[in-house]
Amino acid sequence: MTELRIDNPSAAETEDLAEHQRMVRRAKWLKIYHGSLLPLLSGIAGLLLWELAVWGFALPQYLLPAPMQVFETMIDRWPVLMSHLWYTVVASSVGFVIALVLGIVVGAAIATSRSIDRVLYPWLVIAHAIPKVVVAPLLLVWIGFGLKSGIIFVVVFTFFPIVVSTVTGLKSAEPDLLQLVKSMRANRWQTMWKIRIPTALPHVFSGIKIAATGAPVGAVIGEFVASNRGLGYALIQAVGSLDTPYAFASVIIISVFGVTIWYLAELVEKLSIPWHASQR
Amino acid sequence: MLDTASFVDVKSVEKTYFTPSGVVHALGPISFSFDRGQTVGIVGPSGCGKSTMLKVLAGLEDRTRGEITVQSRNVNGPLDDVGVVFQKDLLLDWRTVLENVLLPAELRGRVDEKIRTRARNLLEELGVSGFENNQPWELSGGMRQRVSIARALLLKPSMLFLDEPFSALDALTRDKMNVIVQRLQMHEEVTTFFITHSIAEAVFLSDRVIVMSDRPGRIIDDIEVGIPKPRTLSVREEPEFIDITRRIRIHFEKAGVL
Ligand SMILES: Nc1ncnc2c1ncn2[C@@H]1O[C@H](COP(=O)(O)OP(=O)(O)O)[C@@H](O)[C@H]1O
Ligand SMILES: [Mg+2]
């Protein structure tokens, strides 16, 4: 029984209880202080400094708007911003889901068949070497203006991390483990379902998280080039008319969306592989 | 005639690995045979081909040359009726302890109440009862390895292959494991092929110890251990035990591995 890794609380019991509680309180306080209080104070101070600087140096709004101005703009034009956000959300999510399905299928094919691997490999290397951003103007030529090219651009942007992580994941089962299940007379199918796929999941999720952060970026770049809707378009439009507070408001909403997607991916990961070392 | 044949018969078996980085002659030729119920211990310098021999014997790796028969049947491909334990316990983190033990039954579509009871009994015999529903990572190294032994024994295999199963454990846990394994093995009456780099461990657990040379591994000695079982740990201090360990150590000294 002593082999279980559970801390032995008897050490604390023998200690002076008051002293112990004082230390616990101090540890809790330090955790709050370093964990949330200090960063929060720093953030507020920064915004305050920014606000004061803008008024103090009488900076024109088109150069640098004060935080309050940005906030006001956001409130005033909330409905427009939300409709742009919705467009970006649709492009990002549809593109991401297509990339996910496609990436996992292609990754699984590469990991299980050496011939497919050899056939696809040079194409993937070439495609991966091209900076994705240059594809955006081409999509305008090939597919034209609108949601479809936005979605395709998100796919281009998020496909590779998913393929790569799927291939790595499916190939990462230990040789000895594979021999062990071979000794238990597992067939290919069982080996795939019971060993290779669970082993692959943590890798696949790291790819998914990279893709999830890439999706809004891809959507916004696509909107820079080939759209008259979406937060990327709103940003270009705002900058073009020197409406800097509106540009800032768009950027803030894009960022919040990016962070939300990231946390969603983290949540799904946590629920799917609670057994993995990174989740315990 | 068949009845008098050995349980396992290995004739001039050799194994060469052909890899992109080169050709490695890992094993043999070696020949030996052993009987049902025996525990055969294998010791030899690291890299001499012990694990290779185990995998070839269990049909997990193809041999390059030679003949292997188990119960007078030619070995081609994985044996049907074996349990294997490697140095790493190789427990699956996404399954509970009990689910890990049940894996071999599950792979054959044979999970029922009877086999669950068998799994629980094995865990109890190995001293891991009460942890059935824990996750493997909540257990210590010694307990994890016991779970993997329970998994190997679940379907009552006629042969058990152990490849340095206790090498990652501390000395005390290791002694404890030796006693547990000896008891279990006598109880289960399973023919055991046991690789270790500890001479004392090999002698303690085995009816017979095979000493291997440097790579490519060949048999340089084959020693009967006549000490009656069950043995207690203190048997390791007895003269007849020490005679055998000395005899093995001398082989290694000659070969310059110690
Ligand atoms: N799958 C493999 N491919 C190529 N060479 C291998 C493989 N497995 C083992 N070897 C080589 O065969 C030799 C014997 O290895 P092994 O049987 O693991 O030795 P031991 O278990 O006695 O330490 C070593 O030189 C090792 O590098
Ligand atoms: Mg080995």
Automatic annotation (TrEMBL), chain A:
Report the subcellular localization. Answer: Cell membrane
Protein name, as recorded: NitT/TauT family transport system permease protein
BP GO annotations: transmembrane transport
Residues that span the membrane, as ranges: 32-58, 85-111, 123-145, 151-170, 246-265
Membrane topology summary: Multi-pass membrane protein
Keyword Metal-binding: yes or no? Answer: no
Family matches, as PROSITE patterns: ABC_TM1 (PS50928)
Q: Where do the ABC transmembrane type-1 domain residues begin and end?
A: 85-265
Q: Which domain of life is it from?
A: Bacteria
Q: What UniProt keywords apply to this chain's record, in alphabetical order?
A: Cell membrane, Membrane, Transmembrane, Transmembrane helix, Transport
Kindly list the GO CC terms recorded for this protein. plasma membrane
Please tell me the species this chain comes from.
Lutimaribacter pacificus
* Recorded family membership: Belongs to the binding-protein-dependent transport system permease family.
Automatic annotation (TrEMBL), chain B:
Picking any one GO molecular function of the record gives: ATP hydrolysis activity
Which SUPFAM superfamilies does its entry note? P-loop containing nucleoside triphosphate hydrolases (SSF52540)
UniProt keyword annotations, A-Z: ATP-binding, Nucleotide-binding, Transport
Gene3D superfamilies xrefs: P-loop containing nucleotide triphosphate hydrolases
- Classification via Pfam families: ABC_tran
Q: Which family does the record assign?
A: Belongs to the ABC transporter superfamily.
Protein name per the record = NitT/TauT family transport system ATP-binding protein
